[in-house]
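Reminder to self: keep the SMILES exactly as supplied, no canonicalising. Ligand is flavin-adenine dinucleotide.
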Amino acid sequence: MKKQKAVVAAALWLATGIAGAAETAAPVCLIAGWENPPSVCAAHTKSIAATCFICHGPNGKSSAAIPGLAGQDKAYLIAAMKEYREGKRESTVMKKYALGYDDSEYESLAEFFAAIK
Amino acid sequence: MTLHRRDFLKYAGAGLAASLLAKPAFSATGGQPHVVVVGAGFGGATCAKYLRIWDPNIQVTLIEPNDKFYSCPMSNWVLGGLRTMDDLIKSYDHLPGYGIKMVRDSAIGVDTDQRVVATQNGGKIAYDRLVLAPGVEFMTDLIEGYDAAEAAGKVTHGYKAGPQIVLLRKQLEAMPDGGVFVIASPPPPGRCVSGPYERASLVAHYFKQHKPKSKIIMLDGHFAVVSKGPMFKAAWKKFYPGMIDHRPYNLVTKVDHASMVVTSEFEDVKADVINIIPKQRAGAICGQAGVRADTAGVWCPVNGVTYESPKVPFVHVLGDSVASNMPKSAHVSNNQAKICAAALVELFNGREPDPYPVIGSTSYSATSDHTSGPIAVVMRYNPDKEAYIRQPGGGASLESDEVNFEYNKAWFEHIWADTLG
Ligand SMILES: Cc1cc2nc3c(=O)[nH]c(=O)nc-3n(C[C@H](O)[C@H](O)[C@H](O)COP(=O)(O)OP(=O)(O)OC[C@H]3O[C@@H](n4cnc5c(N)ncnc54)[C@H](O)[C@@H]3O)c2cc1C
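Structure tokens returned for the bound complex:
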């Protein structure tokens, strides 16, 4: 329901964007299907990535048995999350975590961790 | 077109309305915004650290009476002889490196109108925002004889790390083979619901090696092994058959340390070593600040986006003290701390905080010296319902194993590093 609303809104935005080209449309991003200004999405990404630190180490830098995420290839990270969600990759906890986030969050999380040197 | 926008002020509460008016200074004192954090546990230390990492313009003062950090996670491992006390004690020395001002003192009162915290040593510390993360306080008066028994050194709760764990371990070591160890636990909500079952498992591990004729009787205020039930039951059967006697619906009401008898609503049990975990409420400072505002006056309701008290503006609450459907764990406290810190950064900078925060909730429990198992649940804040909603697919492992024992150890190392390192 909500998701649809947002998708429709996004489509409208695209349409008006094309029609009235000069209008400086505020950029939007989606969280859980809702439209938001980019600053909110940035805050959301920072905050959800930090939930992963508890197990994967601060900034995704591991010093123990749970693998690190920092500096991993972005596409690899996205693929791993999808495989966990679909049960195609063996896991103890990651399937349960992957099910709690959506594709756009996989993408922003992967980008976040891939960028850490 | 109209963008879908959430009501910014709704999340921000009265505190934001005021700080927006004060724009661009954002600070009551006219300078950089000042956040005072009470309690350097998993909630408070994490919040202080991430405030400084995410916005070095924010001044942070962290009030904590202890000179070192005592970890409750892993304390059951010490009781079971898997680790020593030294492994639980961590240093606060890295925190000042983030620009956090550490004050070794206790908060004893809050003037929420003037926005000033009073400390034990006579300090008066002004704040723009106050974060209370004092953990729990035990309601010992609900158990007749508890205070006297604790003062006599005969009964422990062992639910704050430090001297309580040292004493309980000594008592277990001194107990003769064939003795009875009683663990009494309260019904939820309370700190670490799986803790008593992990404790029973690891003490059983110790007894099995050193005093195999001994027994553990669990007087459980709840109706069952409520957390990771199948996992614990399977491990008890496999590793410690006949040793752990779990008695549900058995809330303890009285203890007599002269006769070493524990009394529940249903029975008297004679014990050699007594561990009673009383019911809890939000730390005392939450009472003093007027934020223990749930119907029972025990826990602190918060706004799920900012963790600000809906009752008292500019006062935020984190960790075990929060009234919510989230488990009271170190993992959740660390997680809430980051959501609160991120929200404060956005608010001080005049931006909207993330209206859709997400909490990951995991706790690992060990069942022996080589097996553990996790629970993993994701909870997402729903602004319409104003609540964190448990996402489908989460839950507890049905079994404990070696792989999870390794991950459990990694979890300890990483949460300590993330909170204090
Ligand atoms: C046996 C046991 C095992 C556990 N195992 C796990 C586990 O494996 N995983 C997990 O996630 N959780 C575990 N927990 C739960 C975890 O310890 C708590 O949920 C967590 O500590 C709560 O964090 P907090 O910040 O709310 O409080 P705390 O970590 O207790 O920190 C509160 C701090 O505030 C300070 N303080 C209190 N009042 C004041 C005041 N007035 N002024 C200044 N400072 C003050 C205290 O000294 C303390 O340092 C366990 C708990 C127990 C008892």
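Points to follow up:
The pocket of flavin-adenine dinucleotide is lined by residues B 38-44, 63-66, 72-73, 75-76, 106-107, 133-135, 159, 191-192, 195, 283, 285, 319-320, 328-331, 333, 363-364 (CB under 6 Å).
The two ends of chain B are 47 Å apart (CA to CA).
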